[in-house]
């Protein structure tokens, strides 16, 4: 089942199994230069135990020279508004490349404005930029890294007061393409092992 849910310009694409209800929900934030369709392969492998909400950014967004979203605050705010209605299942967040910053900021806003902290926030192939304003989550962060992402680890670690882990692959330059099965297994393991508050 693939169902679009829109609020202003940000849209969620709900990818769920038609027969078996999921135990967890994962909101996925793609890289600004990619579409939510880039996450379809990941979503298909996570079913049926994990339902995916793939975030689609505004079509008219202004991208900076490095490919990040121009109006990040608006994207974060609209994503938080949409996700508030999808916390009936344990919720985790996944951000790929520049989507990692969005995922962390959304997690921070959810913790500040609701009584639900994400079960875990995953950031993949993301080197935090010097402009990134560190959030201080009270929920776990797991970084999925390639060899070139390792120097950003101190910035990732500073994003949480809870558990922090790094899973690094030497050949991990394109994790969603080259390590999708490994990512799926890791997400499943993390969601199952993280206690619900």
Report on this model:
The chain has 197 residues and is of the alpha/beta class. The chain has a single domain (2-55, 78-193), classed as 3-Layer(aba) Sandwich (Rossmann fold). The protein is 29% helix and 24% strand. Strand 5 (91-96), helix 3 and strand 6 (121-124) form a beta-alpha-beta unit. The protein starts with a strand and ends with a helix.
Structure summarized in a few sentences:
With 197 residues, the chain is an alpha/beta fold.
Distance between the termini: 29 Å
| Helical fraction | 25-40%
CATH architecture: 3-Layer(aba) Sandwich
**Could you name the CATH topology?**
Rossmann fold
Beta-strand proportion: 15-25%
Please write the CATH class name: Alpha Beta
Assembly classification: single chain
Largest sheet: 8 strands, mixed
Helix vs. strand class: alpha/beta
Helix count equals: 6
* CA radius of gyration: 15 Å
Q: How are the strands of the largest sheet arranged?
A: 1-2-4-3-5-6-7-8
> How many structural domains are formed by the residues?
1
Question: Low-confidence segments, ≥5 residues, pLDDT <50?
Answer: none
The CATH homologous superfamily name equals Alpha/Beta hydrolase fold, catalytic domain
Shape: globular
What order do the SSEs take from the amino end to the carboxyl end, as H and E?
EEEHEHEHEEHEHH
Number of strands: 8
Average pLDDT number: 82
């Amino acid at each position: 089942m693939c169902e679009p849910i829109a609020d202003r310009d940000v849209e969620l694409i709900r990818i769920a199994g038609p027969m078996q209800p999921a135990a967890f929900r994962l909101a996925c934030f793609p890289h600004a230069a990619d579409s939510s369709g880039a996450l379809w392969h990941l979503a298909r492998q996570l079913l049926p135990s994990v339902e995916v909400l793939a975030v689609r950014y505004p079509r008219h967004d202004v991208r900076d020279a490095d490919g990040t979203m121009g109006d990040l605050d608006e994207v974060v705010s609209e994503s938080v508004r949409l996700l508030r209605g999808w916390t009936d299942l344990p919720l985790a967040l996944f951000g790929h490349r520049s989507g990692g910053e969005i995922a962390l900021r959304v997690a921070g806003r959810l913790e500040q404005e609701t009584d639900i902290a994400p079960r875990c926030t995953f950031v993949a192939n993301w080197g935090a930029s010097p402009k990134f304003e560190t959030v201080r989550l009270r929920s776990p962060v797991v970084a999925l890294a390639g060899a070139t992402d390792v120097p950003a680890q101190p910035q990732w670690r500073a994003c949480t007061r809870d558990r922090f882990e790094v899973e690094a692959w030497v050949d991990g330059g394109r994790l969603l393409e080259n390590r999708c099965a490994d990512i799926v297994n890791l997400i499943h393991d993390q969601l199952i092992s993280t206690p619900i508050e």
